[in-house]
Structure formats: C-alpha cells, structure tokens
Write a structure and sequence with these properties.
Number of strands: 4
Order of helices and strands: EHEHEEHHH
Radius of gyration: 15 Å
Strand order of the largest sheet: 1-2-4-3
Structural class: alpha/beta
Helix content: 40-55%
Length: 169
C-alpha cells in the first residue's frame, strides 16, 4: 500500500504520517482489500478547498473533505499483480479543526473521521440516498470505534454521527 501525502502549504496535518498510514491500511483491511493500492492524500488550505469544491461539485463554499475515486479496489479486470490507483483524498485541516468543537470532537478525532469518510468514498460508499447514508454512517462509526480501541482509547467516548451532515452543502 502506498500513501502519497502532499502538504505544499505546510499546514498542520492534525495527525502524524504514521497514524494516517495506519488508518488507511486499517480501512482497506477492514473492507477486504487485499491487493496493492496507491492513495494520494493532500492537505489544502480553505481557499484551495473552496475552489476545488466549486470546480468539481458546483458548490461555492469550502468543505472539509473531498474524495475522487480512480480504480475500483474490486475491479477484477485489473491484474492482481498491478497496484491500483484507488484515488485522491483532499482534507482541509483548517475547516476540520474549526468544525470539530461543533460536533463534540477534538480536531484530531474530526480528522480521523474525515479520513475514514474519504477512504470509504474511494471504496464505493456514498451518502446521496438515505439508505446509503445510513450504511456509510454505520460503517464509519464501527471503524472509528475499532480504531479508538486500537489506540487504547475508550470506543464509547467517540462522538460520531451523523457524519454525512454535509450531504446537501
């Protein structure tokens, strides 16, 4: 698994590189992805995120996370010995840190949530329809609690849903 992390603006990442890589690996394993994948993760400032959200989603305001899926992790047409380019996750740490208290989270927990959210998008999850949102939120909740337990934190202390609160930006 390769995770290419970009932070050209030298923003506070909120999570260290080792934890980011752990979360990515953890989600891939939990979702049954057993093949080599590559993921690009970029930290951008609020202004750049605003522009990307407007360009790609037609929404003229900033957001916390964007995901752009490339190859499907479950595409049987791609030979197993080839690494898949799973996609790109873009995080806006300034937005994440600002909104965290509103949802009862630390900036780090909110960043973990946004990273898991982005990973699940790359793996085909969505939250456009209510039933899809419920399934995605349940999986995010489960993964975040498992990650908390692995860190030695109390899984019950994790504040999660609704994660897809930005469905109708």
């Amino acid at each position: 698994m390769g995770v290419l992390i970009s932070n050209d603006a030298k923003l506070e990442q909120l999570l260290d590189t080792a934890e980011i890589e752990h979360i990515v690996h953890f989600v891939l394993e939990a979702e049954g992805v057993a093949r080599e994948v590559e993921i690009s993760l970029s930290f951008v400032d609020e202004e750049e995120m605003h522009g990307l959200n407007h360009q790609w989603r037609g929404i003229d305001k900033t957001t916390d996370v964007l995901s752009f899926e490339c190859d499907s992790a479950f595409d049987e047409d791609i030979p197993l010995d080839e690494a898949l380019e799973l996609g790109d996750i873009i995080l806006a740490p300034q937005v994440i840190a600002r909104q965290a208290p509103e949802f009862g989270n630390s900036a780090q927990d909110e960043c973990r949530l946004m990273l898991v959210h982005g990973m699940l998008h790359l793996l085909g999850y969505d939250h456009i329809e209510d039933d899809e949102a419920e399934a995605m939120e349940a999986r995010e909740d489960e993964l975040l609690r498992l990650l908390a337990a692995a860190r030695g934190d109390d899984p019950a202390s994790i504040e999660v849903g609704p994660i897809t609160r930005h469905t109708h930006d």
